[in-house]
Amino acid sequence: MSHDHDHDHNDAHTHPTQEDNDLTLTPGEAKFIALREMLIEKGIITGEEVRKRLEFNDSATPHQGARMVARAWVDPEYKIRMLADGKKAAIELGIDVVEAEIMVIENTVNIHNLVVCTLCSCYPRSLLGEPPAWYVSKAYRSRAVREPRAVMQEFGLKFPRDVEVRVHDSNADLRYLILPMRPAGTQQLTENELANLVSRDCLVGMALPGTN
Predict the structure, then answer these.
(1) Is 122 noted as a catalytic residue in this protein?
(2) Catalytic, out of 122, 126, 170, 202
(3) What are the backbone angles phi and psi of residue 105, rounded to the nearest 5°?
(4) Considering 2, 59, 121, 202, which one is annotated as catalytic?
(5) Which domains does the chain have, with CATH numbers?
(6) Is 117 tagged catalytic?
(7) What is the pLDDT of residues 56-107, one digit of tens each?
């Protein structure tokens, strides 16, 4: 099960000034590589299958998740379905999804949600592509839970103290996607124009639409 951390906690283009030097493999990374090589050696999977999966991951872009957000902003019925089952809502738009489950969490005027994976780098790659370097860094994975407001402020995002910040910890079975609030003054925009307001970082809670 995933863990939601309720804390007092975007991604403007000013990301943390220093990223971790993760050249040394963590025990988890080393185990993953060893397991992958063992499965290939035993013929359970092939190098070609691994390559195709990596290509699939690379083909995904944040625009897929942004499409879902824009549709939810203009279609209340779709929004209900999206909040009930993110994976089915993605498939409804013709998006190929490989994750077991995707939970969509809505930001409100009183609650802002932030996504992290404290153990590794679980991320909705089908919808957002590969995670950014800061998301997988040790600093983000630990600090986002302990001091989310401080981390978000480093990214240019600051909320009043009466806005509750909730941190959601992804895992191998459950990935999160944030449904941000629609910006004011966008009533005349088309669905495609709305999607263009939604960056990758909006979809994990590290930015606000239209601010990047």
Answers:
(1) yes
(2) 122
(3) -120, 130
(4) 121
(5) 3-17+61-204 (3.90.330.10)
(6) yes
(7) 454 456 789 999 999 999 999 999 999 999 999 999 999 999 999 999 999 9
